[in-house]
Amino acid sequence: MPAIVLFFKNNNMTKAMIRHILLIKFKASATSEKIQQLRELFETMPAKVEGVSDVEWGLNNSPEGKNKDYTHAVMMTFADEAGRQNYLPHPEHDALKEVFRPLLEDIIVFDYEI
To answer: What is the pLDDT of residues 29-73, one digit of tens each?
Structure first.
């Protein structure tokens, strides 16, 4: 008789990873040097904060023109909910926000489980 294998995603039987997406609109006064400094801070998070698995940084290059002046994106991956809960109040996240907030015109934050 063949074995039946069941896989349950996003419930208590597995720990779902979480994607944390930031769509960023910088102030006109934000210099490329300050934006680069911010990028480098984001990219160090996996080494500094337990539960942050990966960080990607990207510049909008869509030809559709529907980005509504949001020019940059950051995609962080948390190992699980515990990773996200560790990151949000973490001193390294607070330090990143100190650099980020003065540059920021607007932001969209969107999280989902994978």
So the answer is: 999 999 999 999 999 999 999 999 999 999 999 999 999 999 999
Which CATH number does the domain housing residue 82 bear?
3.30.70.100
Handedness of CA 74, 20, 92, 105 (dihedral sign): positive
pTM: 0.85
The boundaries of the domain holding residue 105 are 18-113
Q: How many domains does one find in the chain?
A: 1
Q: Exposure of 4 by Cβ count < 10 A (0-12 exposed, 13-18 middle, 19+ buried)?
A: exposed
pLDDT tens readout for residues 80-111: 999 999 999 999 999 999 999 999 999 999 99
Residues 80 and 10: beta-carbon distance below 8 Å: no
With respect to residue 8, please indicate whether it lies within any of the assigned structural domains: no
